[in-house]
Amino acid sequence: MNFGVCVPGTTETEYFGLIEEIFMIEYHGAVGLKAMIFKCHWFNIDQGIRRHPSGNVDVCPQMHYDKYDPFILPEQCDQVCYVPYTRLRSRREEWWTTIKVMPRGFFETKEVSQNAIQNNIVDHVISSTNIVRVEAHAVQDDSNYEPMPMINPEDEYLSENDFIDQYDEYSYSDSHSD
């Protein structure tokens, strides 16, 4: 298998080529810019490429593109893989089928819609309001009742020390009764 590149043309044609060399151009200075460049061997777009109705594209590696324009930036091209057809006997012309390779982490998606998902229309809800007139009257309590005591006078008062002494006696008698 051979790997190469596919470059979309200005018309509906696509240019296919094999990568011969990869260059890294480094610009020295404060910024330190680097650029990758592919040197490619291009196939003839007239007789060297045939398109099937199914969408497959075949290239003939023996037919070269005549114009000298070998360099391309990686951002301008797609990666393709060339797979030769299996033959029982050799032919004068050999054809390879092209398979576009999707790089890892990249997904082919449709055009991104710029429409907002949420509607910008605000629903103006008019609520019905019923105003009820309420009159308030103050009432004064003139009753002669005495407040009820919270503590029952018949209850006996235990201080904290008396309570602890009773608890100690109770726990001491329980432990010796066994």
From TrEMBL:
InterPro entries: DUF4216. Residues 25-96 form the DUF4216 domain. Pfam families: DUF4216. This is DUF4216 domain-containing protein. The lineage of its organism: Eukaryota, Viridiplantae, Streptophyta, Embryophyta, Tracheophyta.
